[in-house]
Amino acid sequence: GINAEYMGALGINLTPEQSAAFWATLTTQHFEFGDSVLTFNQPVEWVYFVISGRVEVIGRDGEGKPVAVLEKGRGDLLGELEVITGNVSVADVVALERVELQAISMRACVLDAVQWWLCSSPKRSVAATG
């Protein structure tokens, strides 16, 4: 999963205060097939790093009807757009199988370095950290 060495390799150098806030909020969460990870137009409390499993992202078309957008899996982020858009989910995200996620509180994502990291790329690989 995510660890200090991995973050350092990404060039993320947090102050001791930022580091303490980041690690204090990091948690592991599990979802089963069919469980909702994020719900469209609902507040988002966590940004997730997919450790294992797959989820489906379901957006909305021009008429507001649900439409499958893509699948995400190991190494992908969930909820990173909400850091930018204001904490309301822009899509439904549903587990396609048992999913293990590492989650960080949305409050911790206001840290400049972490926010930059989450928003700078649509995908960060966690494969290197096992």
Explain the overall architecture:
The protein has 130 residues and is of the alpha+beta class. The chain is 23% helix and 32% strand. The chain has a four-stranded antiparallel sheet. Strand 4 and strand 5 form a beta hairpin. The longest helix is centred in the first third of the chain and has 10 residues, at 16-25. The chain is globular and about 45 Å long. The protein starts with a helix and ends in an 11-residue tail after the last helix. The model is unreliable at 119-130 (pLDDT under 50).
Topology of this protein?
Elements: H1 4-9, H2 16-25, E1 27-31, E2 36-38, E3 46-52, E4 55-60, E5 66-72, E6 77-78, H3 80-85, E7 92-95, E8 99-105, H4 112-119
Antiparallel strand pairs: 1-8, 2-7, 3-6, 3-8, 4-5, 4-7
Q: What proportion strand?
A: 25-35%
User: Structural class per helix/strand content?
Assistant: alpha+beta
Write out the strand line-up for the largest beta sheet, numbering strands in chain order: 1-8-3-6
**Number of DSSP helical runs:** 4
The gist of it:
This protein has helices spanning 4-9, 16-25, 80-85, 112-119, and strands at 27-31, 36-38, 46-52, 55-60, 66-72, 77-78, 92-95, 99-105. With 130 residues, the protein is an alpha+beta fold. The strands form two sheets. It has a four-stranded antiparallel beta sheet. Strands 2-7-4-5 form a four-stranded antiparallel beta sheet, with no helix packed on it.
Entry keywords:
four-stranded antiparallel β-sheet; globular
